[in-house]
Amino acid sequence: MMNVIERIESQLKGHPVLLYMKGTPAFPQCGFSARAVQILEASGAAYETVNIFDDPELREALKEYSHWPTYPQLYVNGELVGGCDIMMEMHQSGELQKLLGGAVKQ
C-alpha cells in the first residue's frame, strides 16, 4: 500500500492539471475553491480535482509536501502553481492560459 506522499506523487503524475480543493467542482465547500474551478473552466483546460475533505491524511500531508498552508492548490505538470489569488492574477494576465496550453480539453 502506498504511503500518503506516494499517493500525492501518483496523483500529480497521473493528471497534468490537478486542483486540490475543498469539495467538488459541482459542490465547492469554500469560495476560494469555487473561484479556482471557475478560473479553470474559463481557461478551457482539462483538469482533475481531489476533494481534500475525503482524505484527511492527504489534506495534512499536502501542506508539508507543497509548503503551502491553504487550499485550493493548483498543480500543473507536477509543479505547484499556487492558490486562488495567484490563479486570479495569472488568469487576468494571460499567463495561466499559456501554462495550461498543453492541457486544453479535447
Automatic annotation (TrEMBL):
Keywords: 2Fe-2S, Iron, Iron-sulfur, Metal-binding, Redox-active center. Residues 17-81 form the Glutaredoxin domain. [2Fe-2S] cluster binds at C30. It comes from Methylogaea oryzae. PROSITE patterns: GLUTAREDOXIN_2. It comes from the Bacteria. Belongs to the glutaredoxin family. Monothiol subfamily. This is Glutaredoxin. PANTHER family: GLUTAREDOXIN FAMILY MEMBER, MONOTHIOL GLUTAREDOXIN-S14, CHLOROPLASTIC. Pfam families: Glutaredoxin. GO terms for molecular function: 2 iron, 2 sulfur cluster binding; disulfide oxidoreductase activity; metal ion binding.
